[in-house]
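Quick one:
INPUT:
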């Protein structure tokens, strides 16, 4: 990867960290996350208006960006690329949420006095989809069991018991920042394991 001549000093600094990360330097990943986490979080919070969702989406954004880091091109700033991944992921999240909560089977009258019906995609699963979903959940639980106990506990509390970050911190007697950082690592491990077993789910 060759640094773009048009990059700012900040962009060139990011590029050095990216090259170090791609060469296996875990501290470089941590530094990139440290520099942009707050900005990404507040952008997510502005879009979804819920702190827990913003936290999850922030972690997902970094997870997706780090998994695709080899695709980054220095012809534009890393921050631009990262914010694009984060916003696209957030938009997908919002769309899925809206499909789940929207239900309109009655017509309404438009400004021309015409009755217009709205067809909305149903969020109800048919029996076959339910069976497939349950099988995926079962497989995911089996994969989670293979994580280290600390990471397994975090994933189970957050995604199976649906506890908030604050509840997990209190339950495990850990600082809130530690819970968030360890959940980020736990999700990375889980994503890697799921990738290896995706043929079965």
């Amino acid at each position: 990867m060759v640094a773009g001549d048009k990059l700012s000093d900040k962009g060139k600094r990011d590029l050095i960290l990216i090259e170090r990360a791609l060469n296996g330097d875990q501290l470089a990943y941590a530094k990139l996350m440290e520099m942009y986490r707050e900005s990404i979080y507040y952008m997510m919070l502005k879009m979804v208006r819920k702190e827990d969702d913003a936290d999850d989406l922030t972690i997902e954004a970094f997870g997706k960006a780090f998994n695709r880091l080899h695709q980054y091109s220095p012809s534009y700033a890393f921050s631009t690329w990262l914010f694009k991944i984060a916003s696209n992921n957030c938009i997908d999240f919002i769309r899925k949420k809206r499909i789940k909560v929207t239900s309109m089977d009655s017509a309404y009258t438009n400004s021309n006095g015409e009755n217009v019906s709205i067809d909305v995609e149903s969020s109800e699963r048919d029996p076959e989809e339910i069976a497939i979903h349950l099988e995926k959940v079962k497989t995911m639980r089996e994969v989670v069991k293979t994580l280290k106990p600390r990471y397994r506990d975090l994933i189970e509390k957050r995604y199976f018991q649906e506890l908030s970050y604050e509840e997990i911190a209190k339950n495990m007697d850990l600082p809130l920042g530690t819970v968030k950082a360890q959940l980020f690592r736990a999700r990375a491990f889980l994503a890697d394991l799921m990738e290896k077993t995706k043929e079965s789910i």
